[in-house]
Design a protein that fits this description.
- By secondary structure, this protein is of the alpha+beta class.
- The protein folds into two domains: about 260 residues, 3-Layer(bba) Sandwich (FAD/NAD(P)-binding domain), CATH 3.50.50.60; about 150 residues, Flavocytochrome C3, Chain A, domain 1, CATH 3.90.700.
- The protein has a six-stranded mixed beta sheet with strand order 5-2-1-9-19-18, with helices on one face.
- Helix 1 links the parallel strand 1 and strand 2.
- Helix 1 packs parallel to helix 14 and helix 3 packs across helix 4.
- The longest helix is centred in the N-terminal third of the chain and has 21 residues.
- Bound molecules: flavin-adenine dinucleotide.
- Flavin-adenine dinucleotide (FAD) binds next to helix 1, strand 6, helix 7 and helix 14.
- Flavin-adenine dinucleotide binds next to helix 1, strand 6, helix 7 and helix 14.
């Protein structure tokens, strides 16, 4: 069985294949290292109706999670796929735990989720999952080949995918193309090559606002050539224009950095404030698109970006390990008073003071009358000095678009809307699952469940 790409989707598929008795399982990865974006991700994993939720008395269900996702997806997410993923999320998480992944013993409530349902690895990073999965792959005898770039498909005379042209010895970014070899796969081919956020030509063709000036949280390897190859052989492109920007990113560091994870944790009990008005301008835990759109509207008279600030009580910020990193690397700052915050960021002081007082009233009442934010995780958490402050500005983060697959992870053909024989896809390379906007922590279950699903389908044929 041949798998292209070594992120969550590819690794989960390979482990599942070995567990189901596949003899030869090979992962080809174009980079010198394994893990892709999955290894630098935030390690946030949504599981509905989990053991921790039951322990904390939180009512949830796969249907409720899907309803949150469809709302964030502005109604165009594929409910059938989402339900399949939500119903198997627990099984996927168990696969990571069995491989040695460890999670914090508490749940987080991320933007757009109606309840706390998100686990996070104890290293607050996706490597807390990919490293154990890689070890498990090696233990089970999965063959891992790096610097091997998928180039094109090999078909049999009946039009079924039976292999791939692989460029071995490829060196990403160094102009070394490698030498071609043709690999036969008796069980079809699984494309698990991730998104295309780093392909500026492609993303700005789909969304002309996403030029090279807009930063990205993704690794440079997210270039989407395998996706384009699937389109060339007939796969249906879906939702390609829906490219998500992350509202927790910072203009003060490259990539995902430290502020992203810090903000994801802290938004629930913090306020984001416009530096020109000193007032809040959004629900800090709305879905990503709602927040990113609201942030991007923060501009000066010339239309230049005016990144808003997020203010958190030091007492609560320090609960998460990323605070120390944010302060250490100078991408967040500690202040002893609101006067000092206002002075540093040139924010009008009086409106800022009024805003903090007003917000603390919402904390007491348990109701946010300004933006309707869920105050579940803000309960008892007044904003008070000392404060930690970061700046936020969206970066290109996730591609909701990709190739259309069915619930068996089979890639559908744009002519007949039937599966292309032998061609399977899983993870961010697929499209339509999340609609207009993906909810945070919902890609890991998507990639893992659909990787495992693809394996089942491939071994059944
Ligand atoms: C910084 C960051 C933080 C994130 N945090 C979270 C989070 O906490 N929770 C969550 O749910 N989601 C998160 N996401 C989203 C999630 O991490 C990704 O959607 C997910 O990792 C995609 O996994 P994948 O297996 O589809 O692809 P990837 O992990 O991107 O792996 C694809 C692999 O395929 C390889 N490849 C590409 N083309 C070829 C080719 N032609 N030949 C051979 N190999 C190829 C790539 O080099 C790469 O290694 C985050 C994303 C980023 C960037």
């Amino acid at each position: 069985m041949v798998i292209i790409g070594s992120g969550f989707a590819g690794l989960a598929a390979a482990i599942q294949a070995k567990r189901l008795g596949a003899r030869d399982v090979v992962i080809f990865e174009k980079m010198p290292f394994f893990g892709g974006n999955s290894s630098i991700n935030g390690g946030l994993f949504a599981v509905p109706n989990s053991a921790l939720q039951r322990q904390e008395g939180i009512q949830d269900s796969p249907e409720q999670m899907v309803s949150d996702q469809v709302q964030a997806g502005r109604g165009i997410a594929y409910r059938e796929l989402l339900l399949h993923i939500a119903r198997h999320a627990h099984e996927a998480m168990q696969l990571t735990v069995d491989a040695g992944a460890e999670y914090f013993p508490y749940l987080q409530q991320l933007g757009g989720h109606s309840v706390p349902r998100t686990y996070q690895t104890t290293v607050a990073c996706g490597a807390g999952i990919t490293q154990p999965l890689l070890r498990e792959c090696r233990k089970l005898g999965v063959k891992l080949v790096n610097r091997a770039r998928f180039d094109s498909f090999v078909f049999d005379q009946g039009g079924a995918v039976v292999g791939a042209r692989i460029l071995r010895g490829y060196y990403f970014g160094r102009g070394v193309e490698g030498s071609p070899s043709h690999i036969r796969s008796r069980r079809g081919l699984l494309i698990a090559t991730g998104g295309f956020a780093s392909n500026v030509d492609l993303r700005s063709t789909e969304d002309p606002t996403l030029t090279a000036e807009v930063g990205t949280t993704n690794l440079p390897c997210s270039t989407g050539e395998a996706l384009l190859e699937m389109f060339r052989v007939g796969a249906v492109p879906v939702h390609m224009t829906h490219i998500q920007t992350g509202p927790w990113a910072s203009p003060d560091e490259e990539g995902f950095g430290y502020v992203s994870n810090y903000s994801i944790y802290n938004f629930a009990h913090s306020i984001s404030v416009s530096v020109s008005t000193g007032r809040r301008f959004m629900n800090e835990i709305a879905d990503r698109k709602t927040r990113a759109d609201a942030q991007l509207a923060n501009r000066d008279a010339q239309g230049e970006p005016l990144p808003p600030i997020t203010i958190t009580s030091y007492e609560h910020a320090r609960e998460h390990p990323t605070m120390e990193k944010v302060l250490k690397y100078g991408v967040g700052w500690r202040f002893d008073s609101l006067d000092a915050v206002a002075d540093h960021f040139n924010v009008p002081l009086e409106p800022l003071q009024d805003q903090v007082e007003e917000y603390n009233g919402y904390v007491d009442a348990g109701v946010d009358r300004q933006f309707g934010k869920s105050m579940e995780k803000a309960r008892g958490k007044h904003l008070k000095p000392p404060f930690v402050v970061v700046r936020n500005w969206p970066k290109v983060h996730y591609c909701q678009g990709g190739a259309r697959v069915d619930v068996h992870a089979r890639v559908l053909d744009s002519g007949a809307f039937e599966p292309i024989p032998g061609l399977y896809a899983a993870g961010e390379v697929t499209g339509g699952v999340h609609g207009v906007s993906r909810l945070g922590s919902c890609s890991i279950p998507d990639c893992m469940v659909m990787g495992m699903t693809a394996t089942r389908s491939m071994l059944e044929t």
